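Researcher: We're teaching a course module on how sequence relates to structure. For the next exercise, students receive a sequence and then see the predicted structure as tokens, so they can try to spot secondary structure elements on their own. Here is the exercise chain.
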Amino acid sequence: MEFIHTGGLRYLTFDIFPSEVVHAVFTRQGGVSPEPWQSLNVGGTVGDERSRVRENRYRSFHAVGRQVNSLFDVWQVHSADVVLANAPHPRYENPPEFKADAIITDNPAVTLFMRFADCTPILLYDPRKRAVGIVHAGWLGTVRRAAGETVKAMRAAFGSKPSDILAAIGPSIGPDHYEVGNDVETQVRYAFGKEAELLLHRNHGPKAHFDLWMANQLVLRQAGVEQIQVAGLCTACHPADWYSHRAQKGKTGRFGALIALRQ
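Model: And here is the predicted structure for the students to work with:
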């Protein structure tokens, strides 16, 4: 992994992906938003002004050499639904048209884009079929196996073999900070069965802590993905770089992640 600095922005890249994949998980640095969204907030539903969000999004795309009008995003709803993006949004400044938590494409003219603040960004690339995907997986998306559903969608749409797919799991809230209630613990146990013991940690307290990194690795491996790189960076531990909904008690922004095929 490597952090890239350009134009005041700082973003994370993964060395599992070759140069023909444009990708980035942006930190919160280099934007125009004031507190509590300082500064590269790309979330349009957190109270920040739309003009600032638009400028931050423009800066993000410009930093990696992509046109903003190549954007395709969705209204993220903690589902396991996957959208196939055949072309960019007709008007990229409009609100997202689709409700989903994963997007796939094999069109180099499309840049897949999502927003995060503790949930897990997952980037996917099939080098044989030249297709990419992006997933938003919080606890609910994880137990619903959103990443696995995205692998299935790539297989159906592009003929991808899961063993060919390269995956990167980006920064999200780490298990030490992710204490969950009994309702979440119950759903994790229902979704993962005996493997749930590997994903839930007590940390010497009464409540369980959910390991999103390990859980999404398990989901991907069960879907047939063999090559996975994990950032292992906790959003709650590194507030200078990442927005964290939990650590900042809901008063925060959203950092962006994107992936595209180089044209």
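Model: If you want an answer key for the exercise: The mean pLDDT is 95. Residues 124 and 167 are 5 Å apart (CA to CA).
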